[in-house]
Automatic annotation (TrEMBL):
Origin organism lineage: Bacteria, Pseudomonadati, Bacteroidota, Cytophagia, Cytophagales
Pfam families reported for this sequence: CarboxypepD_reg, DUF5686
Keyword terms of this UniProt record: Coiled coil, Signal
Signal peptide: 1-19
UniProt-recorded name of the protein: Carboxypeptidase-like regulatory domain-containing protein
Species of the source: Spirosoma linguale (strain ATCC 33905 / DSM 74 / LMG 10896 / Claus 1)
Membrane-crossing segments per the record: none
Stored SUPFAM superfamilies: Carboxypeptidase regulatory domain-like
Length: 905
């Protein structure tokens, strides 16, 4: 019976793939003069009836196209980069009409160019005008609605031999269950309804989605990005105001499009090719200086080459990228793959901003200045359309000033309407409940780009696999029901206790809002010379109050409670320590209470993690972590008012603090490499004779306030605000500590930090801090100001604010201090002068760390680092060489291997 059903369903499916749907339309093949097919050529349909809207499609990888059209007369334009555009009339009747096209290579002519300032390439005057008008073109569209068809195809073409051998069984299962196979494309098709409105709102509704492997949507960093923007997908656009710093341009010629449009071909040549820049060709329309089409290539941070092709179509006089194609190829971790992503837009509504008309002429003042130029005062406060009515030709400088003034006025208008002007982009995505259930007939009527033979086979295989699974369910329904009932009796509930969970840890879901989280002691086995071997376990009860559902992508909790405890057994000291914790959080405000007995590093920032200290102690004979005991009760409150621009943290703690020694004097490491002896747990310090302190009580008040010095820009994705790192503002932090009871001091410090881009993959990071003990009548070593030192060859943590060679506690101070950290990341500096090195994703760093305390003698580190030590395999590792200086005198040289990852706490 199962075989008969399988045969019947397979036959019906095959018939549905090949059957005619009864619709009308146009199909054909696009080739060049030599008979080779032209993949992804643009096919633009223009109705001869004025009421008929323009539409279009793209040929597939086999050069074939197919588009559904109502009966009538049309003009069909065929476009392909580097080839002459042709137009053909056609009349659509019943069924599909075949219309093939053969394109000839584009013949270019050199335009007569008047040069008055040396022998500058004509491309520069064209690009100056196009750059000056780039923002103008972005603001032309007030709003639009469009149906967008996207298709992506991803193919793994080779796997490392080791992977194929090691995962042979899994690969066979993946082919059987998920339709994955080397050399077979994985497909994803999406049809969406997209709306846009100025200045920054995109709304997308997925109405159909189909995939040959599973249900997923294709994310794409180029989605809705524009080459009129200064950057696109992290790379500098050839139309960026900074383009001349990154590119050279060459004029290749001009050709005429049907309708008399003149188009100039410009070669885009990066000054240093690599991640963050493009190379290729861009076509610019004469007089309007808009993008006609482009073919540009870049490379991402893992060495994958990406080629971008756009073909623009005039929509109500505005040239829009209606046909887009992205191709990628490369290898990562030995896996070679290739893929493409195509996007076709058909507009149903298109509204042009009335303030931006296309009859504005742009004069290149470096060649021939306009008859009249405007001063800043003549532009300030004036409306754009008012200026245009009086004057038609503007210099590139004046046009930029006018657009900037327009944006300033629009921003003020938005403020007056109480809109959030810090939001630079507002995106939302909604998936229709039927999106993944559309039939083949539905797709045949909606698909803009026909499937290739290989893609049809891939879909057939995927649908067959799904069909077989459904048949198995149908034919074995009774047995499955019996088996499931029987197994349900035997199967343990995920919330049921089992002894194995004591070893592995577990999370029990008690209700929809609450869960019990158990951390096994086997997950936290550590060693230090104070406690010996330790095991640490935790048990926490978490309760999230009812959530306010904004949409399916984001849920805002109305409150979250946490209560639990952590216990730690010290085998060396033969005792238990631990603490309890209770907290409540509402949005960005959190109140927590904790108390107990625990061991802490003198530096509360934990300059060496317990995990790394375990390795250094047991394997390298160096016990860096210095610990003291604290019996405490702590109340902490944190809040982030003013839309997270300000962060406040206040705490009040009562503690009894006790100095500890190594639990035994004759401790030995596992391997005695250099016959070192472990150091005492009492740190050495240059400012005091001894860091010893008696057991004492301390009441500590600690207040920290941080604020952004400027408005941080945000993007909104499905209601969630995300700060933009590239537009972040400097962070100012103030900290005040007050010691009372057996201690008596007042400490105040301030710091400012910032990170900002200085070019492609180039960034400057800095952190400056200074502080002083205003009152130091009684200060014990736990209260000293400690610094982020490092004494091990492996350096981890924050690469900006961590010293590389500074002993952890040598210059801790109870007086005053000043420190400075500067890290410059370079895309091109020394070894990255070589293009191959840049393409591998390596970066070079220069850094300086400075520390002043009364005893530090102007301690300074100057270093060089190579980021991406093992390209494309372990890109987060780096190697560094550092020189030490004190009072401008050279002290020595050190080397570090580092990572930006953090291990342990």
């Amino acid at each position: 019976m199962k075989s008969i059903l399988l045969l019947l369903f397979t036959c019906l499916y095959s018939l549905s793939i090949t059957a005619q749907t009864g619709t009308n339309g146009l199909r054909g093949t696009v080739k060049n003069a030599q008979g080779d097919v032209l993949p992804f050529a643009a096919v633009i349909v223009k109705g001869t009836d004025a009421s008929t809207k323009s539409t279009g499609t793209i040929t597939n990888a086999e050069g074939r196209y197919e588009i559904v059209l109502a009966p009538g007369k049309y003009n069909i334009a065929f476009q392909y980069l580097g080839f002459q555009t042709i137009q053909k009339p056609v009349e659509i009747g019943t069924g599909f009409t075949t219309l093939d096209a053969t394109l000839e290579e584009q013949a270019l002519r050199l335009a007569e160019v008047q040069t008055k300032a040396g022998n500058e390439d004509p491309a520069y005057t064209i690009m100056r005008r196009a750059i000056a008008k780039s923002r103008f073109h972005q603001l032309q569209v007030q709003r639009f609605k469009a149906r967008v068809y996207t298709k992506s195809s991803f193919t793994v073409i080779d796997l490392p031999n080791l992977a194929e051998m090691a995962f042979k069984k899994q690969l066979k299962e993946a082919e059987k269950e998920a339709n994955f196979k080397v050399g077979v494309p994985l497909l994803n098709e999406t049809v969406a309804e997209v709306t846009f409105s100025q200045p920054n709102t995109y709304r997308q509704r997925i109405i159909a989605n189909r995939n040959s492997q599973g249900d997923f949507l294709s994310p794409n960093q180029f989605y809705n990005a524009s080459f009129y923007s200064p950057t696109i997908a992290g790379a500098v656009s050839p139309l960026s105001p900074k383009a001349f710093a990154y590119y050279k341009f060459e004029y290749k010629g001009t050709f005429r499009e049907p309708g008399g449009v003149e188009v100039s071909k410009i070669q885009v040549i990066p000054r240093q090719y690599g991640e963050g820049v493009f190379r290729g060709t861009i076509y610019i329309l004469e007089n309007t200086w808009a993008i006609h089409s482009l073919q540009l290539e870049t490379v991402n941070n893992i060495g994958v080459s990406i080629t971008v092709r756009h073909i623009c179509t005039p929509i109500q006089g505005v040239w829009m990228p209606t046909n887009q194609r992205y191709e990628g190829k490369g290898s990562y971790l030995g896996v070679k793959a290739t893929g493409y992503y195509i996007r076709n837009l058909t507009f149903s509504e298109f509204v042009v901003n009335p303030a931006f008309v296309e009859d504005i002429e742009v004069a290149d003042e470096k060649k021939a200045p306009p008859a009249q130029t405007l001063s800043k005062g003549e532009i300030k406060g004036r409306n754009l359309d008012e200026l245009v009515k009086k004057q038609k030709e503007f210099s590139t400088k004046n046009l930029r000033q006018m657009v900037k003034e327009y944006e300033k006025q629009e921003k003020q208008a938005r403020k007056n309407r109480k809109e959030d002007v810090t939001v630079v982009r507002d995106d939302s995505l909604v998936v229709d409940s039927l999106a993944r259930k559309r039939s083949n007939v539905f797709w045949d009527s909606l698909r803009s780009v026909p499937l290739t033979t290989a893609e049809i086979k891939s879909y057939r295989k995927a649908d067959s696999l799904g069909l077989i699974k459904e048949i198995k369910v149908l034919t074995k329904a009774d047995s499955v029901k019996r088996d499931s009932l029987a197994s349900a009796k035997k199967k343990k509930s995920p919330n049921k206790f089992s002894p194995g969970q004591l070893l592995s840890g577990h999370t029990w879901r008690l209700t929809k809002q609450s869960s019990l989280i158990y951390t096994s002691p086997l997950e936290r086995i550590e060693y230090n010379t104070v406690e010996g071997y330790t095991v640490e376990g935790a048990l926490n009860l978490r309760y999230r109050a009812k959530v306010d559902s904004v949409n399916r992508f984001r849920q805002i909790p109305l409150g979250e409670w946490n209560i639990g405890g952590t216990g730690r057994y010290q085998f060396g000291r033969k005792g238990f320590v631990g603490y309890g914790l209770g907290s409540y959080q509402y949005k960005s405000t959190k109140v927590s209470v904790s108390g107990g007995r625990y061991l802490y590093q003198y530096n509360p920032d934990n300059p060496i993690s317990p995990f790394l200290n375990t390795l250094t102690t047991l394997l390298f004979e160096q016990n860096f972590a210095k610990l003291y005991q604290k019996d405490f009760l702590n109340l902490t409150v944190t809040a982030s008012p003013f839309k997270d621009r300000v962060s406040l943290t206040g705490s009040l703690e009562y503690a009894q603090r006790t100095e500890l020694a190594n639990y035994r004097e004759d401790l030995k490491p596992w391997i005695n490499w250099r016959e070192r002896t472990f150091t005492p747990n009492r740190p050495d310090n240059a400012e005091v004779e001894t860091t010893a302190f008696p057991t004492h009580n301390a009441l500590l008040f600690n207040l920290t306030a941080s604020a952004k010095l400027g408005a941080t820009q945000y993007t909104i994705r499905n209601g969630r605000r995300i700060a933009r790192r590239d537009n972040d503002a400097p962070l100012l932090t103030l900290n005040y500590r007050k010691g009372m009871q057996d201690v008596d001091y007042d400490f105040l410090q301030a710091s400012i930090s910032h990170s900002f881009e200085t070019g492609i993959r180039s960034r400057l990071n800095y952190k400056l801090s200074a502080g002083s003990f205003l009152n130091d009548r009684q200060v014990y070593f736990p209260d000293f100001k400690h610094f982020e030192g490092n004494q091990f060859f492996f350096q981890q943590g924050d690469v900006v604010s961590t010293y590389r060679l500074l002993p952890y506690y040598q210059y801790s101070t109870a007086k005053r201090f000043a420190e400075a950290h500067v890290l410059a990341e370079f895309r091109k500096f020394f070894v990255t002068q070589l293009t191959l090195v840049r393409l591998l994703g390596l970066k070079e760093n220069l850094f300086v760390h400075y520390l002043y305390t009364p005893a530090s003698k102007n301690y300074t580190e100057v270093g060089y680092g190579l980021d991406g030590l093992i390209p494309q395999v372990l890109p987060f590792f780096r190697v560094e060489v550092i020189s030490q200086w004190q009072d401008a005198k050279y002290q020595g040289l050190g080397f570090r291997i580092g990572t930006t990852l953090k291990f342990g706490r």
